[in-house]
Amino acid sequence: MNCPxxxxxxxxxxxxxxxxxxxxxxxxxDGLRFNQPAGHLDEGxxxxxACTREALEETAWGFTPTALIGIYQWPRPQRDITYxxxxxxxxxxxxxxxxxxxxxxxxxxxxxxxEIHATQAHHRSPLIxxxxxxxxxxxxxxxxxxxxxx
Length: 150
Hints:
This protein is α+β, with helices and mostly antiparallel strands. The chain has a single domain (8-144), classed as Nucleoside Triphosphate Pyrophosphohydrolase. 19% of the residues lie in helices and 44% in strands. It has helices spanning 47-59, 113-118, 127-136, and strands at 8-14, 16-17, 20-28, 31-35, 38-40, 61-76, 81-95, 105-111, 141-142. A 5-stranded mixed beta sheet has the order 5-1-7-6-9, with helices on both faces. Strands 2, 3, 4 and 8 form a 4-stranded antiparallel beta sheet that branches. β2 (16-17) and β3 (20-28) form a beta hairpin. It comes from Rugosibacter aromaticivorans. Pfam families: NUDIX.
């Protein structure tokens, strides 16, 4: 049975503190890879709530999105998947040192932009560096451009 094509909607958190970004190292089908705290939008969930949830689940850090950095489309032909990523900047919250990280997350790590750039060969996708570049250039859109209806 053929299913209609649809993109995989994901969210990503660009969490910056003192010139470093909170990243995750995770197990993937391609081996260990770096990513922003990111994940899939769940049914009925708003993009903003999904980003808050994913950041907490993958890093044990609270995160409140305050701006949209960009919307990114990445067709991945070798997997026959297209990702539609909504990347957010925001405010870092409290850390829960006792919280277990999501399955597959090896560690949460703070990295400088230079370290992120130097590890591009081990990024989960090309969107990671592009999101950092857009963030560093000051690109911000108000959250009000996103409408969620229940």
